[in-house]
Write a structure and sequence with these properties.
Residues 662-694 form the SWIM-type domain. This is SWIM-type domain-containing protein. It holds the Pfam family SWIM. By secondary structure, the protein is of the alpha+beta class. It folds into six domains: 7-15 and 31-85, Ubiquitin-like (UB roll) (Roll); 228-263, no CATH class; 283-333; 335-492 and 567-616 and 701-755, no CATH class; 493-564, no CATH class; 617-700, no CATH class. The protein is 30% helix and 21% strand. It has 21 helices and 29 strands. Strands 18, 19, 20, 21, 22, 23, 24 and 29 form an eight-stranded mixed beta sheet that branches. Strands 8, 9, 12, 14, 16 and 17 form a six-stranded mixed beta sheet that branches. Strands 25-26-27-28 form a four-stranded antiparallel beta sheet. α6 runs parallel beside α16 and α10 (493-503) packs antiparallel against α11. It is elongated.
Amino acid sequence: MASEEESFAVLVHHKGSIKRKTRSGVKFTDKNPLYIVVNRTTSYDDLVRAVLMKLGLEGAKRIMFLCRRQFPEVRTPELLTKLVDVVSSSGGSNRNTANVATAAGSSSMAAVASSSVPVYEPAAQLVASPSFAVDLNDGVRDEVGSFDVLANALQGVPPVGVGDGELGDPDEDDVEPETIEDDSGDEVQAAGPALAGGFGARDAEGNAGLTEFQVGQQFQDKDEALLSVKTYVGKCSEFGNGCTWLIRLSLRKRKGIWEVKRYNGPHTCLATSISSDHRSLDHSVISAFIMPMVRADASVSIKVLLNATAAHFGFRPTYRRVWMAKQKAVGIIYGDWDESYSEIPRWVLGVQLTMPGTVAVLRTSPVIVGGQVDESQAYFHRLFWTFPPCIEAFRHCKPLVSIDGTHLYGKYGGTLLIAIAQDGNSNILPVAFALVEGENAESWTFFLSHLRQHVTPQPGLLVISDRHNGIKSALEAPDGGWLPPSAYRAFCIRHVAANFALTFKGKDARRLLVNAAYAKTEVEFDYWFDILRSEDQAMCEWANRIDYSLWTQHRDEGRRFGHMTTNISECVNSILKGVRNLPVASLVKATYGRLAELFVRKGREAEAQMGTGQQFSQHLVKCIESNLKTARCFTVTLYDRDNSEFTVAETTPTGTFSLGTYRVSLASRTCDCGYFQALHFPCQHALACCAYARVNWSSYVHSVYQISSVFNVYRMGFTPPIPEGFWPPYDGPTVIPDPNRRRAREGRPRSTRIRTNMDEADPNRPKRCGLCRQPGHTRRRCPQVVGSSQTGRN
């Protein structure tokens, strides 16, 4: 071993002294090298300082070690270094450069990054290679100016991230990359590691993989430059055998942009062998491409985005990758998924300041760390909210409310519970919301208790819902305020029919059950039920296990106003479209904006109709006009002197045959046809009686159908939201998402859709191949795949 006093020589060679490698190694042509003596105790900083002082460049240059060569006779490696500009505080730099060859004992090197490059660790950890070192955490350091990218054909090579590059002055002339031989004789390219290839952007003519670069082309930042290169990387089976595709991007420090400095193209070996997917087509690249589509419609399906990506790049990524790309795009547009939970407490304070009277109830759960409660953080648990215009609007709506839940589609799972009302013009209106962990007895109790307390205190209210046990438990709670006669319950016939179809297959039987439910008289109900019984007695037995008052219209005593479903799908599609795909903070903010727009639009429509002198809503006017057309073929008989009790005989247009007789009571607003009491406006028979008695039919219309009532629903508008910078401060614990609600990190995201009979395939339907769509085989045994694989082996 060498002693501590053993000295080594440092040789300094100026720029231009490097020749390409020969059989004997790297040659230097400088005849007057600069000698500096160091020993084993000399630190790296002392070595650098001594070299710069001898050159008279201290403070103006930096030294970067690039490679070394071995002198076998003295066992001393010679280090090749490069002088790089030091940027001054004014932004200027010294453009003079020099290459330095340093000879030092191999045992004196404190750190070696690879077999060919000794790299001393600076303040920020650098990734070293035979020709470059880049800070991957903080982007490109001052001394990092340019990088080379080679198209490569090696399958399985992961894509190189931001920061792959060659150390050099950003504004100096381009120099051919050197190939330098190390001790083992292996050749290492001076350019950085190649990107994994296999996909390309399309040119103006739509040809995949033909996007061209040109010298002088500029980019705003390195990410944009790398993205442009990344979207033009081919999978070339001839790389290393004649393929010389090369692009070099350099940072122009003074301009603050990245520019193409060198480009050997076009890459002509792209189309020889292309796979169906590619690693370089990662979710970041896909996210940048689908960003405009996600911004236009956050509810755009993954299938649509996947097909668009495949059509643009010429490769078909996996479902999971596109799903991740969409989540990243949504996070960029609408805010980070995790940070959105911490914004909710301030949103509560801000919206209550914007609109006094807003009800927002936030529930959190403690964070346990090491058996102790973390007081600085809390898990998001539940949130209920409603706005003053919604509370006021429900007073003028029909006395019923539909409740249902819909799943969230983002990074974290959960359920959005919604209460939906309907005005006299058949417009649906969400009046209350809740974000909960899922549909269970506790979450429904939380939602319904606040709904009853703040929005729907009216007596005799009807609640339409599905048959979920959590809803049943919440509505039947003794202190919930939902028991008769304060409130009544009815089932959504769509959910009842879906449950029915799980036991009894066939669309005809399901249709018979729905027709029986919509029947407005007992006679009509018995007619459809008898047909159902003739199909299968077990079907009637299944239906008889449910109380008729819960799912049939003829037993609801007119509380439904003709509404048989919860209207959740219509509400989500028409008013809340896309909100389920947003982070929670953006979701709750979207409800405010969407409702504000709805109140303005519907309020203007109602005000315009009032201005023209209309008395009733457009929906009622259309129904009355339809009933008047059929009321001309009736024979009316009066049975009391108060003009309230009648019989109406329905006849053919010629009056030859009777089609039935109906009793009509204007006083009690009933008719044997069932429509008068079910819909709360005169049916065709009642209109005939009004015409016979010369009374105005408008007095027998429920007040909810008056245009003034419809206008009152939207009379109270929303106020412009106060900017977030003026929201009151929040000093409570930071709200964070519950990690248990995060979706699976691997595999295809699980569907949250509740499967019904509509999702079941016909058992008699022949199975088809998922690839060629032909029957008789599966994708694995598809002749197309088998034939192509055999051809490849041959």
